[in-house]
Task: structure prediction
Amino acid sequence: MRNHTAITAFILLGLTEDPQLQVLLFIFLFITYILSITGNLTIITLTLVDPKLKTPMYFFLQNFSLLEISFTTTCIPRFLYSISSGDRTITYNACVIQLFFTDLFGITEFFLLATMSYDRYVAICKPLHYMMIMSNKMCKTMIICCWMTALSIILPPLSLGFRLDFCDSNIIDHFVCDASPLLKISCSDTWLIEQIILACAVLIFIITFICVLLSYIYITKTILKFPSARQRKKAFSTCSSHIIVVSITYGSCIFIYIKPSAKEETTINKGVSMLISSISPMLNPFIYTLRNKQVKQSFNDSLKKIAFLIRK
Result:
């Protein structure tokens, strides 16, 4: 976003002008942020130190938690500072950096969720070949591919964004630097970049969703062939956490692409952005720990070790 005018900073309107609501919002976001960081760091730590969790599934979960920390940290602390200080300005460079990293982390997360669904497909449908297919090298390659694909997708529209002019307004109707409100205040012709962004968003959504959907269709078919109800229940339980997280992520994004009225569009986008950036990263660690016996066991064992060390 090259700035041809004197604009060197933007003003983020945030979510509300009401002082009382801002206090409640600050407390809520601060608590969710702390819980998100704590929960995801706990998962990362457990998967690093517990030998029982040295499997491809937990390797992907570890990377997913790292992504969640990165994504929420890109959005929430800056907004908390804005609420507490009253300073809503953000420099041009800081805005570009925030936009770049939120998009990078967000898109990478979609591809990682698709990768995790493929991992579950191999584990359940091809158990005898699981460790051979999902080798350490393959897992690392898949993670790198998620990041590189996301980077290659955001670079074309971002490079076009550097050519935008901001002549009349520097007020962004959002709590973060997001592409949609930025394009609205630009006095340049934004048709091409809007079409590229829409095409990329739809492509990412469809490709990753099809991957997830096909994986779980084959998983369901395989599980239903299991002879005992106990085996079926155990197999489904290994996928339940991932299904819940996928449902929250894709369900949230669907609201963005349902065409609301002009007045509702900004409000819905803000609400969905809040859900994705603060609530989802907080919920995901609890979803994976509460519904996963191995993670719960590892967590309980770690607490016992810590308690034992404190007593000594």
Remarks:
- The mean pLDDT is 88.
- The beta strands are 9-12, 89-91, 171-172.
